[in-house]
Amino acid sequence: MALSTDDLNQLETNIDAANTWVNGDKNTDAIASNGDSIKSIQKINKEAKQSFDQHLATLGFEPPIAFASSILVDRTTLTVEYLTNVYAPLASVIPFTTTASFVSAEWYLITDNVPAQSGNQGKTLTTDGTTLSWTDKNPLTYPTLALGLADGARWQVGMYIDLEERTAGNGGGGRWKVIASTTNNGFNIVDVPLNAAISLSLVISERITSSQLGGTSTGDQLAILDKLAELAYLNGVWGIVDDYAHTVSASWVLENDGLAIWFLGNARIVPSSNTVLSGITIGGVTTPSRMYIYRPKVDRTTYDGATENVGITYLEMTQCSVIDAESRFSKYNHHWNPTSGGNAHNKYDNLQGIGGFYNFWLEGQGATSYTNENQFNCGRGFCTSDTDTNLRISTGSTKIPSGNHFNDISLEGQGVQGVYDDGDSNTFKDCRSEGTWSSGYFHVLGPNCTRSVVMSSRLDYTFNSKQATTPRLTKISYRTGSELFTANNLLTTLRLENTSTSRGTGLEIYNTRQNADAFAWQAWRKISSASGTHDGAANAAILTDSGESWTINAFVDARIENTTDGSWGIVTANTATTITATLADGTDNDWDVGDAYVVYLSNGYLNTLGILHARQKLKVGSSNPAYTVTNGLTDRTYDANTVTIAELADVVGTIISDLKGKGLFD
After folding, report:
1. Within this chain, do residues 189 and 295 fall inside the same structural domain, yes or no?
2. How high is the pLDDT of residue 88?
3. What is the CA radius of gyration of the chain?
4. Residues 416-439: pLDDT tens digits?
């Protein structure tokens, strides 16, 4: 039976009485009185031994025997008493035979909460003598896995172990369960060296972390990250990449339906060298769907333009979300490059690309691969001196990237251009365009570009479609607001060029304010006979093309452009072989040998003050029917009372000639 508190108090009283008798007078009364105390002590000691033996049995142990030499120890339930303590043998050294000396390395001390290594599994003894089941409500706790394994000789199947950290200083604690021995993988299943019959298995509930699997900030972490993604997918939980640098020797591939990965804090993937061609690969030939990848980051320490490396590669996938992804100093920070299928209908929010040759690059390799109909929201691409293009959309194959939407992305810094779009039907809305671009344009359309849509309220959003050779529809919208106007209240220049020989350029102008100030429109028509190269002196203020024979002053008020240095001016005079204009907005603003030029005649200048009101529009096309007049005379004066039909015909012919001279008619 269990000893009560009253039993223990009475034992203390009887021991005190016996002590007084032993050290005091031995008279008859004292002998009679203390004889009862001694009998009581003997009784309680007997009951205490019986109670302790019962407790040992509860724990799964046999009653202890006195330690001596030549004891055959062949079972874990055997116990010995040595120097008033009770010990059980370690399972890892059974069987053995004792010698005269007690070898502490062969035994462990039995305490009130230590069950035997076999028998009566799942029980523990509390101080009041009752038993509780070993469940996840009362686990053993250890600071680290190593310290726990050192105590593993007394563990049993069914016990739960809590770790404060897997490895000291790296976090990764968690709950583990003692299971029958199984294959050790070193990650979520670990051998117990002191007991070959059992293993530790990580309990996975709502999430699993890289540190729980043994991840640290040193050494190659690729195998740990692969196991993290595998277990997160198989258990349907978050895979957490803990807050430190994870070095990898190859790309970490994320390619499972419904996979959810979360990078905590400044968790990041660091390729072990720039020859590791991709830090993270999202997607693959299985075309996973509904993945959620939150805050992935790849961080290279230096830019290496000689190596075709990538920060994050996006392959085949659909209906996935990638949030707050960041890549720094890879040659191609974010690269969409499916090889045998589509990267389509995905959502990319707040992506960051810093210091790459291309910060964002969309393409598709192979006849069946494509990057289509994705949505890109916010985010930032920052260019450095190593950058060519912030956002590039390339043909790459027979499948042109199309239908992608870019909303409120900040593309800034320096390079050849901010955006190069050689795709189909891509939309750009309110992208930030701040920077210095050596091409002279922030947004450039490539030769395969068709049906791009650009909407911007920024005055520095420069646009160039000269390379495009196929028919296309391009829209640019400057939204209302004070930012539309410069300090002197004049609208910035908006230019659309038509390079097609078969189609005209349509321009629709809407004035949606009833009280709008004057809005001016002017169109220019290229003169096919007035283009070539300068063959006069270098650094000349006047263009010379000695092979021409122009009509004197035929180009006055026309626009001439030096397409080599980007300058332009309004013609003030011309001879048969020279054109005079003050050039501006170019690199040299003069004429050098070989500089190319183009002359544009004005199709007219309209001041719309009082003409265009709310929702009214002026539509102008450059394709007009040809007018041919024969036998006409120049006549700009006539008497309305006496005019003849022939004279009126001459006046009409003169008007047509004048309008042709202004480029309004062919």
Report:
1. no
2. 84
3. 44
4. 989 999 888 899 988 888 888 888
Neighbours of 28 (CB within 10 A): 7
Domain annotation covers residue 509:
no
- Same-domain check for residues 198 and 50: no
Which among 607, 637, 658 is the end of a domain? 607
Tell me: do 51 and 181 sit in the same domain. Answer: no
Tell me if residue 631 falls in helix, strand or coil: coil
In a domain, 445, yes or no: yes
Q: How far apart are CA 307 and CA 638, in angstroms?
A: 78
- pLDDT tens-digit map of 206-254: 899 999 999 999 999 999 999 999 999 999 999 999 999 999 999 999 9
Neighbours of 446 (CB within 10 A): 19
Helix axes 28-59, 5-23, angle to 10 degrees: 140
Query: If 0-12 CB within 10 Å is exposed, 13-18 middle and 19+ buried, where does residue 97 land?
Result: exposed
Task: Note down the domain range covering 147.
Answer: 113-234
Say if CB 60 and CB 123 are below 8 A apart: yes
pLDDT tier, 479 (very low <50, low <70, confident <90, very high otherwise): very low
Do residue 248 and residue 230 come from a single domain?
A: no
Same domain, 107 and 127: no
Q: How many domains does the chain fold into?
A: 5
Q: Is the same domain home to 73 and 169?
A: no
Question: For 269-313, how does the pLDDT look when each residue is reduced to its tens digit (9 = 90+)?
Answer: 999 999 999 999 999 999 999 999 999 999 998 899 999 999 999
Identify each DSSP E strand in 278-424 by its residue range. 278-282, 292-294, 297-299, 310-314, 317-318, 321-323, 326-328, 332-336, 342-344, 347-349, 352-354, 358-362, 370-372, 375-377, 380-382, 389-393, 405-407, 410-415, 417-421
Task: Give the end of a domain, one of 473, 503, 533.
Answer: 503
Give Cβ neighbours of residue 596 (< 8 Å, ≥ 6 apart): 531, 532, 533, 562, 563, 564
The amino acid occupying position 162 is: D
What is residue 656's three-state secondary structure?
helix
Cis peptide before 471 (omega within 30 of 0): no
- Condensed to tens digits (0 to 9), the pLDDT of residues 630-661 reads 888 888 888 888 888 888 899 888 888 887 76
User: What is d(CA 208, CA 186) in angstroms, rounded to the nearest whole number?
Assistant: 15
For the chain, how long is the longest CA-to-CA vector? Answer: 172
- DSSP H stretches of helix in 476-614: none
